[in-house]
Design goal:
Elements: H1 2-19, H2 21-32, H3 42-48, E1 52-58, E2 61-68, E3 73-78, H4 89-94, E4 100-105, H5 120-134, E5 137-143, H6 145-156, E6 162-168, H7 174-185, H8 189-203, H9 212-216, E7 223-228, H10 236-245, E8 249-254, H11 264-276, E9 284-285
Parallel strand pairs: 3-4, 3-5, 5-6, 6-7, 7-8, 8-9
Antiparallel strand pairs: 1-2, 2-4
Helix pairs in contact: 1-2, 2-8, 5-6
Length: 288
């Protein structure tokens, strides 16, 4: 059913592009930036409600925020596309709450936040607002799109107040998203070109501008990059390129954890890096 729905959306956009390219571009862009909201299960809510909950408004979005711990060092956790804050449960439980204050929020269109749209610039604007609310950060930990957006936000904001960045399974190029989008929906060249033109009108930049390796050249704080060699959503080569561009970064390549990177090895290396800015020198780790 999902595959049939995907094909029908692609057929609709391709047909629309023949008679109204601008409308097809607008619809295509909205679909490109529309996440399918992952459901909140009862056990998700149980964990999320263990936090100190807070809300704030960003533009037309009501953003759901979470805080655990009361330590001096502030951590901000950024989930990926079509995810939500529950994905950080093992991380939150692994940190020393008397040492850290752990913040997270559901991005627009995700989790318990409102909306049905998310882009990297919008995600970055919400991050900026959160930092204005909570103050300087000891670390940001991002997964997938959250990693990409944290690197972009560091690039975008002069004097970004964070001491360490941890990027898990980061994509590298926005152009890759468009290639996947075009392939999945079987979009015609006319449709994808019109959608990219609309993207440029919205952001005053083309997809080629949004490049994590390019943004990473501006990052001058220590970073830990973790990526699994079996990641079937975003290839490990992305993080290799980011590591090459980011002078103060360490790259850890895991095996057998996939895109989600859930495992004790990842928690171990993240906690080591949080403590002293270093992880083990090995570049490959398994989930033991």
């Amino acid at each position: 059913m999902k595959r049939l729905l995907t094909r029908s959306m692609g057929f609709y956009l391709n047909s629309l592009a023949l008679v109204s390219p601008q409308l097809a571009a607008k619809k295509g862009f909205e679909l490109f930036c529309r996440p399918f909201r992952a459901p909140i299960k009862p056990w998700h809510k149980q964990f999320l409600h263990s936090a100190d909950l807070f809300e704030f408004q960003h533009e037309n979005y009501r953003i759901q925020g979470y805080r655990w711990g009361n330590g001096e060092k502030k951590i901000l956790l950024l989930h990926g596309w079509q995810s939500h804050t529950y994905r950080w449960k093992a991380f939150v439980e692994s940190f020393q709450w008397e040492e850290y204050s752990i913040y997270a929020f559901d991005a627009p269109g995700h989790g318990l936040s409102t909306g049905n749209f998310l882009s990297v610039p919008l995600y970055s604007d919400v991050i900026e607002q959160v930092i204005h609310r909570i103050g300087d950060l000891y670390a940001i930990i991002g997964h997938s799109l959250g990693s990409f957006t944290s690197i972009y936000t560091y690039y975008r904001l002069e004097g970004f107040p964070v001491a360490k960045l941890i990027a898990l399974a980061s994509p590298a190029e926005a152009t890759e998203f468009f290639q996947f989008y075009q392939h999945t929906l079987k979009l015609s060249a006319k449709t994808i070109q019109a959608t990219i033109a609309h993207f440029k009108r919205e952001f005053q930049k083309g997809p080629e501008f949004f490049s994590a390796p390019s943004f990473a050249r501006s990052v001058n704080v220590p970073g830990l990059i973790i990526h699994d060699q079996d990641d079937d959503e975003t290839p490990v080569e992305n993080s290799i390129r980011i590591n090459q561009a980011w002078e103060q970064s360490t790259l850890l390549i895991t095996k057998g954890l996939g895109h989600k990177l859930k495992g004790s090895a990842v928690l171990k290396h993240v906690n080591e890096f949080m403590l002293d800015g270093h992880s083990e020198s090995t570049r490959t780790a398994s989930n033991h």
